[in-house]
# Entry
Amino acid sequence: MAARARPVRTYQTGQVVVLLRWTTIVATAILTVFVLVRYPSMPQRVPTHFGLGGEADAYGPRWTVILLAAILTAVVALLAWLSGKPASFNYPVRVTEANSQRLYREGERMLAWTNGAVWLLYLGAVLAILESGSGGVVVVAGLIAMGIVLIVGIVRMLRA
# Structure
């Protein structure tokens, strides 16, 4: 069924998804403000790439931190907005009247949790740039979370 011909969303978003969506937005705003406040005290050259061991192996100008913050803030905002529009998603199964609400709910959940994983990646990148020893661990946690969210979300959609 084409996205514009799909059934209208009728279910109410769960409290956990609403809380996750807003928590991610607020946490992203706080992290972005933190980056902006710390920006003047950052060195002129900052790490821009890290090897598998977590050691910086490339450096770039300080303004790349602002670019990172802008891109990831925009991604989080876009994913939060899109997660509320599940009728427009692509699904791994055909959307019918019978399964539409279950698919929409699972699609919305998956995108909200994906957004949380994106925030973890953002936090890890900021920590790594500020040369905190935990940055690499947080990035790895974000990548693992992203993989788990996508696998669980797709399986749940296939079962819807």
About this structure: The chain has a mean pLDDT of 92. The radius of gyration is 18 Å.
